[in-house]
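Protocol step 4 of 6: structure prediction from sequence.
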Amino acid sequence: MSSTPIKKSDRLASNNKGFCSVFGIKAAIIIVGFILFVAVLLLLYLSSWTILTKHKYALLASAYLYTTTTYFLLLSAIITCIAIIVLFITSWNEYQKGLKLTLLILTLTFAFEITASLLEFGYTVNLEERLSKNLLETIQDKYLFDSGKTETFDQMQKFLRCCGSKSFKDWQLNPNFNISMASAVPDSCCKSYEPKCAQKPYGKHPSNIFYKGCSPALYNFYHTHLVTLGCVTVGVAFLQIFIIILLVWLIKRLEKIRTRNESILPANKVRRLSNEITYYPIQSSASVK
């Protein structure tokens, strides 16, 4: 006994149900896209906060790679936010050119984010040694010679409650500060700050100044933040992979439906592509006879 052949319209109806349907793919894109949008907003906040609060000390320590990476992340987060909003509109309306453009933008920002996260994690290697070296160079060659870095260094010592790079003795490298001079350290090294608080007399080891250096404090200040920023960036990139896969799937699905419909339907019958099971006109009773 031969089996009854399945009609083409029945196959189309069954293929348009569940997650594998165009509607199911679009729903998945919107759900994952919303989660990605929230994650990108968090990345945008962290990048902006980093630029506003941490960059001045990073420039003091000549951490130019750190600052450049943060600006790239900020730009990437802004572009990704716009791309997600466009993705919601184009996917729901099944605008294929818009979907392809959004796919290109998300792929590029994904590459930027992966690169930035690798740079962030890589920058944490030997971070304390590099910070110490750069702070020593600032103490020796730029303090009191560069007004901007002098002011920033004073702010850092007050904020982090530290003095010098590894120790308050590092200030002997600067010709303006010496044990034999009136001030062995800047006034910003004082625990209780006031003008000329670091001047003598108090002997070789004044009790009013901070003994610990700034490089360990600056390392703690940046290391945790770098790891956090890197983890958030990796999380955003991971979600973006899912969006890119779903987007490619949707584009392929729509292209397949469009090709099939163009070979079957008149031009005036083509409507939204995801409603493919309604594309086939019902035959009249006269044509059946």
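Step 5 (inspection) to follow. The longest helix spans residues 214-262.
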